[in-house]
Amino acid sequence: MGFAIEAEQVRKRYLDIHGKWNTALDGMDLQVPEGGVFGLLGPNGAGKTTAIRAMVGLVRIGGGSLSVLGQPVPKGLSKVLPRIGAIVEAPAFFPRFTVRRNMEILTKMSGVGRTGIDAALERVGIADRANSSAKDLSLGMRQRLAIACTLIKDPDLLIFDEPANGLDPEGIVQVRELIRSLGAEGRTVLVSSHILSEIKQTADQVAILSRGRTSASGPVGSFFAEEERPGLVVRISDAVRALSILEAAGIDAVRTDGDGDGLRVSCPPAEAERVTRTLADAGVYVREIRPDGSDLESAYLRLTSDAPAEEEPA
Amino acid sequence: MINLLRSEILRFRSRSLVAAVLVGGSLLIVVGLVIACLLETKPTALDESYARPDLSMCPQDLHPVVPPKGYTSYALDWGYGDFFDGGYYYGGHSEGYHYGCYDEFRSLTIVPSGLLALVYLPLALLGSSVIFVLVGIYFGASLVGADWHHRSMTTLLTWESRRGRVYVARMGTLILGTFLVVLGLEVFGGFGLATAAAFKGTLVGADGLWLRTTIDVAIKVAALSAVTAAITASVAMIFRSTGAALGLLIAYFGYEQLLQAISPTTNFWLLGRSALTFLSPVSTFDAMGLDFSSAVAALSMYTAAFLIVGFLVFDRRDVS
Question: Which of A78, A94, A106 lies closest to B150 in CB terms?
């Protein structure tokens, strides 16, 4: 399988107004396979937007190598740009022009005919706003317009930077389905987001970016499966004793916060009653017990923290 | 490149600013001419007779010309070799005696003062050149500054990554567009004045020489507007801001005025002075050390320098 995007040890620094260098990309490695949806996940400031800017030639990388659709960036970018549709950060248009006029200006730039405009607007669900000024569109509508603009190129590679930003729940679902359908058509779709659940529901593959580096990457299924084992969070006064009681009862548990009072019990939330009864029968009483729905978030936070990733899922 | 140009032209002509300038300018011209028609009276036969070009008053040996009292001497040609004491160059109006002489053309037209006369068109164009130059400055600043303000430059560059092409298309369209908009308004104004003069004034003196002079002035004013648009757009590209470009241009012209006040002989290579010389009769400014050729050279040099610096900054800097 080929790669639509390959980045190796990509570095980028910015000089701020105080004369201090800030590192945006600190040796980022990335391989985005052709076809399907690839999620670029990371907290704000992780370098996602800088990485995307570098991919479409808006910023020049300071080191490493970067290629898109087999062409080195920025040298060969112009050869493949007609095959790339990209939204970088918030969608930006000529605000006083109509939706259609904005699209016409872009289509003329690349010699793409105007025939695809209506179909693209139809596909993103804003065909009825074709004659509205871009400034009169809501953020969600502008996001859809931006996606429509990328579609009129009929691109092989789509790059969406935080496409769910500003969308209402219905819009998020629609954009998610659109992205999934684009990936299913055989196109490569790179989606960046800081929202874990969004990537989980949209992408086939994921890479986690933290402080300008890729801390983990792999197929979404196996990546999150490891972190999604059901469990219970238990707060208890004597965690050491509780641990031994649970072990004796054949229930897996681990301490979650070192010397603190927290345990993570590996069993479905439906078995909370069994856990509390086991502990109570032994004279240890639970202060708090709840389903552990935050494991995914915990994993995300762990992977995006300062510490290097402990392991990379296959 | 052709596609880029087509896209830029579409964008330029879609801009509400361009439409506002065209519609607003045309309306102002129409209103001004209607007011002039209401206030003016049709010249009498006597006026007309005085207004005829009087070749006898234009001796080839550079004798002074004395227009009748109460009448304006208007010379269609600005290529004077000299002026006599009390002499007046283009469009001078009288307090009695005006001495004009010319060594190349003999087409002095004497027009009654205040008459709605088509021969004044070149002067009207010159008088309104400041407005047209301001239009060029605003076109240049806003066309580029708006892209950075609204971040649409980011979107454009995801469609065409070769910034040199984007820059050339943008500046080329701006220069050509500004030139055509200004020229269009000038032509509209010219036809408007011709119509008004035909009804309530006089067309006398509007001969071939006048037409040549008018075309020359109109093209010069439009070209100067386009040049200032290019310079301002380059500044806007450097600072990525409409406000910065407008502010810097205004500050510069203020500085130039200050420099002139402090040192009146400092004219050479000043942008504003070069622009004036470019528009004005050559001999008028000979004494100040500038002539048409050096003015053109200075304007070309400034424009090229700003365009090159603008491109280098645009090409090298990251787009964030």
Answer: A94
How far apart CA A38 and CA A17 sit, in angstroms, is 35
User: Which residues of chain A have a pLDDT value below 50?
Assistant: 307-314
Put simply, the chain B residues between 129 and 168 with a CB less than 8 A from any chain A CB are: 146, 150-162
Find where tokens 């004036």 sit: B276
CB < 8 Å from A in window 268-307 of B: none
Q: What are the residues whose beta carbons fall under 8 Å from the beta carbon of B297, sequence distance 6 or more? A: none
Chain A residues whose CB is inside 8 A of the B12 CB are: none
B276-279 long-range contacts (CB < 8 A, ≥24 apart) are B278/B220, B278/B224, B279/B126, B279/B129, B279/B217, B279/B220, B279/B221, B279/B224
- Other beta carbons within 10 angstroms of residue A27's beta carbon come to 15
- Taking an 8 Å cut-off on Cβ atoms, the answer to whether A77 and B146 are in contact is no
pLDDT (tens digit per residue) in B234-274: 999 999 888 888 999 888 888 888 887 787 766 667 888 78
ipTM: 0.70
- Per-residue buried b or exposed e for A77-98, using 16+ beta carbons within 10 Å of the residue's own CB: beebbbbbbbbbbebbbbbbbb
User: Which residues on A lie below 8 Å from B158 (Cβ)?
Assistant: 56, 58, 81, 84-88
Domain ranges in chain B are 2-62+103-316, 64-96
